[in-house]
Amino acid sequence: MPLHHPHPDAPTGDGSPAPGRLDDLVAFGPAGTIERRRGAVARLRSATATSAGGIVVRIEGDRPSLVAGLRRRDGDRHGGTWTLPKGTPNAGETVEETAVREVEEETGLRVRILAPLPSIEYTFVQGGTRIHKTVHYFLMEPVGGDLDRHDHEFQRVRWVRFEDARSLLTFDTERNLVETAAGALRASGDPGSLPTLNPGATAG
User: Fold this and answer.
1) Dihedral sign, CA of 98, 99, 102, 105?
2) Contacts for 38-43 with beta carbons within 8 Å, 24 or more apart?
């Protein structure tokens, strides 16, 4: 009767590897010796990334709305994600320039910055690299353009009331950021004279 090995990475009693665990990293040689396979990666590389975007706001009857977009990727099984417009910088751009350009491209609107908002930070793994990403956000207002002119990054773009954004937006960090923006709007009473928020803070 084979012995029970409580550790999931331990070899089985007949010298074969535990299924689905170490077999992709090591090979078991004679007498149960372990040989590391060539090309096995023991740890992930690390990198940083930056992008910038905005919360575009309009006021109708004292009720603020913002712009959100539906982003779909190949193989997406969840119907896509509703998110705020954002994107990566071109060479030589400031974060403000990136935010304005990306928001205009993704929404079809022409916008101007009213005030900085807290940034969002998160980590994900892509292509064997662990990436720490910082997204800089700004509160914006539309000065022209049309949502029908949005680019291919979003499948759909729409205005949504602030009170409805929590149920529409996919990510908690963006929902928290919208609440921060709503608080700034309430405090100012006038989106054209918003107080400057601390851009070094993080949302969520």
Assistant:
1) negative
2) 41/128
Residues 6+ apart with CB under 8 A from 175: 165, 166, 169, 204
Question: Is the CB of residue 104 less than 8 Å from the CB of residue 190?
Answer: no
More confident: 194 or 79: 79
143 φ/ψ sector (left φ>0, alpha ψ -120 to 50, else beta): alpha
Which range scores top for mean pLDDT: 16-25, 26-35, 161-170, 178-187?
Answer: 161-170
CB of 101 within 8 A of CB of 54? no
User: How far is the C-alpha of 151 from the C-alpha of 129, rounded, in Å?
Assistant: 29
The residue assigned the tokens 């304005």 is: 100
Cβ neighbors of 181 (< 8 A, separation 6 or more) are 55, 57, 66, 117, 139, 162
pLDDT at res. 11: 36
Euclidean distance between CA atoms 65 and 107, whole angstroms: 14
Give me the domains of the chain, ranges plus CATH numbers: 1-42 (no CATH), 45-191 (3.90.79.10)
The residue whose two tokens read 């997204």 is: 135
Give the Cα separation of 198 and 200 in Å (integer). 5
